[in-house]
Here is the input.
Amino acid sequence: MTPLEQVIIKKSTQLNPIWIMRQAGRYLPEFREIRSMNTNFIELCLNAELSTEITLQPLKRFDLDAAIIFSDILMLPYALNQKVEFKKNFGPVLGDINLEEMLKIDEVDFVHKIHKIYKILNNVSKNQLLINKNTIGFVGAPWTLLVYMINRQSPKIKLKKDFFKDQYLINRLLLVIEKFLKIHIKNQIDNGATVIQIFDSWAGLLEKKDIPNYIYTPIFNLINYVKSLKVPVICFPRKIKDYKEFCDITKPDVISIDYNVDPKEICKKIKIPVQGGLDPKILLTDKETIKKEATKYLNIFKDHPYIFNLGHGVLPDTKPEMVDYLVNIVKDYKNK
Ligand code: CP3
Here is the structure.
């Protein structure tokens, strides 16, 4: 069993595996070099050779326990023929939705458009660097994808007033998203993903009354689907107000927490394995602070099955040296 599986399946508290959200990305000079020569982000995600290399870059540098494949949650709308572009210093920009055309897309069309992603998983999972480690496949949660598909860019702080105006469109889209997310998950697992993480980055935007409909129900369906394929599933409902209720209702194998919640409260209330929490901004400070803050999480979750990670993605200005320092602190903690 890999270190991650010991924590997730055996509920071991003897070790703290670590991987980092957005570990394959912009804080690494070797990534920036590839990125500067490949200005189209989607094309880069579909370049199996380069994306395999990017996925493995952090594992070559740091003693991490998992690779997360270099891809994006927005490859799903892309595969559904919605235009997706990544604008420099702005983020993603999506095109209009043609619902009628989208409803005609079948599994073959969908897989054809993004089959290179599955090739990357195949390559990565067979690489020597992955011995006794996990290859993490991932998807965006239906709600977060709906936000991008309707809003057509990151929502920043709030949703537009008329976001829920076209209920027919929203309900149709949710069904399409759920159907193709299952196909995407199945293909990732068939090609070597041994863990699936579901990113619900915009879970915090919803009012309490809307959470069951847009988060609990679709995520519960997806979690059950992943479980039926016998692969563990980690959920990251970022900034959701009630993590405990989320876990009780949707029943993921692991809950990944953001940096706004009190880890002590989480540890007390939630019985399933926990992942993450450390504020990514801590990695921009100094070694002393990193050690102090990382040790805080390690101490709190000392007797709880815990996978070390951040409370959101690693920031672009992070020095790779600080990531290395963090990984070593986590690795040494229970080895003493
Ligand atoms: O290392 C990894 O974690 C794997 C790769 C990965 C990327 N995106 C690559 C990427 C993963 C897991 C994601 C998930 C993702 N993508 C999420 C969920 C996690 C989160 O951060 O909340 C979301 C919301 C997206 C959508 C997205 N993609 C945005 C908003 C942006 C622009 C801003 C940003 O975060 O960089 C992207 C672009 C993107 N995805 C980059 C990378 C490395 C930057 C591309 C560049 O070089 O410009």
